[in-house]
Amino acid sequence: MKSNVQSLLKISPSILLVFILAFCYSCKKTKNNLELPSQQSNPCNFINQLIEDDQKYRGDERIIDPFFAIIDSMKKAEGISRDKYVNEYSREDRLAYGKRARAIANKHPIDSLLADSLMKLQTEIDHKNTKALITYTKKNGYPTNENTNCDKSPDLIFLHSPEKYWKELKQLIKSEFKKGSINKTQAGLWLRHVEGRKNNDIHEILEKNEIIQVSG
Fold first, then answer.
1. Sign of the CA dihedral 16, 65, 50, 45?
2. Domain ranges for the chain
3. Residue of 121, 115, 114, 119 lying closest to 25 (CA atoms)
4. Domain of life here (predicted)?
């Protein structure tokens, strides 16, 4: 018994945190379904919850490469404005600056086990969010500022949609564009995602999907 306790005490904090997160998530999973708003209710709470959950683990600083934050801190400490950095620093100077920042960032490596575990939890949320937003959109149309009176838009949800929903989403995107609920930018970015992000030419994607007419 004593040896078992000693073994547990040797487990790294990140592994313990993963176990705790997984346990808590499994406990709440059955209660964590988003409630779709009725036509009479205000959908803003639904939209805000989608947006908040979308960044629940994705925005966790513990799994984000600190490189860019370090560069920003270095520039601030040295009194270097963004314009000065972009316009007055040569490519070689910026590369040298980046090497300094990378050297600092490498001293604080991301815990890969923790990152993988948190992203698995985030993927579960992405499934839930995508399904909920598809259901809402089919019933009410895609939520916009005009038809909801909400000041936020859940555009990132479809950009983070799991592959399981891509075929269904592709048809929904085309349908919502024809209805005027979404614009060409939204349609193009979402279609690029559901097609595997293999093509960066949004105009070509829109033409292929008959969102816009083929030129010429």
1. positive
2. 47-63+111-216, 65-109
3. 121
4. Bacteria
